[in-house]
Design goal:
Blueprint (H helix, E strand, L loop, with lengths): L7 H11 L6 H11 L2 H14 L11 H14 L2 E4 L7 H4 L7 E6 L8 E5 L6 H16 L3 E4 L5 H8 L5 E4 L13 H10 L1 E4 L11 H12 L2 E4 L7 H11 L3 E4 L7 H11 L3 E2 L3 H7 L20 H18 L5 E2 H8 L3 H13 L3 E4 L3 E4 L1
Parallel strand pairs: 3-4, 3-7, 4-5, 5-6, 7-8, 8-9
Antiparallel strand pairs: 1-2, 2-6, 10-12, 11-12
Length: about 375
């Protein structure tokens, strides 16, 4: 899509939409494509929710709540960037779906530069931290911005190694939620020399449910993800999986089979990740340009026959719902099972999602809520 400047009023409405109950990234992107602006989406929400079968009113983020968040961000010196704007990072804009918005504190221009993510164990070995720090330093010298999650261990070492060349910290809470507390000094240095980003509201404390979304942004910003140390059950492996799904290169640093922190990285190599024992391995692999998914346009014209789309979605809605199960399944399968056009099927799913009856998931999947 061609990024376009938007008004402050539209940006505020997009913030309201993204903070509204049951409106996740997939639903937000679908509604924007259907109606063309956040204001039109907000006006349509009550009727869409009713059609979906919800009886309780939807909790829509008010203008006053949006204004408080915008004022809190301005007080910090942070910027709100929404999907479709010129400054929104192109790799994130190409995700399916993109995060609807990002708060950026610091040097937001770093978000558009070639980026490598370095992630790994929180309880990392001294050798693992030394390797991550040196890898970040050398990749920074080669022109890459380093992105990580400000966690203990490997993340912190990666940020320290790339402070001079450019580093981005993606947080699970708001851009002012410094966790862990011992990284307060590192956080301040990143704000001064790098950039801190989050899709969550300013002032929000991170919850467990926020970290998978944070990991998706870490991998989504990067051309490649390097996992330095990771046990078999770890958030770093989630980041690696997301990177593979997003078409990014996945690198893993091998380690001793006697160290539990090497089991995850060694397993990644067995699954086809690129073995990394130096910055040269990453630089060589990333010489191939990143091929981004063709982006949809948030500003595509609305359907030429919106009333006809509404009627067909109404006719199909309960049949669509009957085909959705608690196990995530491709939306394409539902379209094929109904032998119906895709637009009204998807419109019905969006209405069911707003009503809280189904959940639209990244990757074109849907499941019952």
């Amino acid at each position: 899509m061609t990024p376009r400047a938007i008004s402050d009023a539209e940006r505020r409405d997009r913030l309201r939409l993204s903070r509204t109950e049951t409106v996740g990234p997939v639903t937000a992107a679908a509604l924007m494509a259907r109606f063309g602006s956040a204001r039109q989406v907000l006006d349509a929400l009550p009727e869409l929710v009713k059609r979906g079968g919800r009886t309780a009113p939807l909790k829509v983020c008010s203008g006053a709540e949006a204004d408080r968040e915008l004022e809190a961000g301005a007080k910090l010196g942070a910027r709100l960037i929404t999907a479709g704007e010129p400054d929104f990072p192109p790799p994130l804009a190409a995700l399916d779906p993109p995060p609807p918005l990002l708060w950026a504190l610091g040097h937001a221009d770093l978000l558009s530069k070639p980026t490598v993510a370095i992630v790994g164990a929180r309880i990392a070995s001294a050798g693992g931290q030394r390797f991550a720090r040196q890898l970040a330093l050398e990749l920074g010298q080669a022109g890459y911005v380093i992105v990580s999650g400000l966690a203990r261990g490997i993340d912190g070492a990666a940020h320290e190694g790339s402070l001079a060349s450019g580093t981005v910290a993606v947080l699970g809470g708001g851009v002012d939620d410094v966790y862990p507390s011992e990284h307060a000094g590192l956080y301040r240095r990143i704000v001064e020399a790098g950039c801190v980003v989050s899709e969550n509201a300013v002032g929000r404390k991170a919850k467990a449910m926020d970290f998978p979304r944070r990991n998706r942004i870490i991998s989504g910003l990067a051309q490649g993800v390097v996992v330095v140390e990771a046990e078999l059950r770890s958030g770093s492996l989630i980041t690696a999986r997301l990177a593979g799904e997003q078409g990014r290169e996945v690198f893993a640093v091998p380690g001793s089979p006697l160290d539990p922190r090497a089991k995850g990285t060694n397993d990644l190599i067995r699954q086809g990740a690129i073995l990394c024992d130096s910055a040269g391995d990453v630089i060589e692999a990333l010489r191939r340009p990143l091929r981004l998914r063709e982006q949809g346009d948030l500003f595509d014209p609305p359907p030429t026959d919106p009333e006809g789309l509404d009627r067909e979605a109404e006719r199909l809605r309960e049949n669509v719902f009957a085909l959705v199960s608690p196990t995530p399944a491709p939306i394409d399968e539902i379209v094929r099972a109904l032998a119906a056009p895709a637009p009204p099927v998807f419109a019905a799913l969006v209405e069911l999602s707003l009503a809280g009856r189904v959940e639209l998931l990244p990757g074109g999947l849907v499941a019952r809520s």
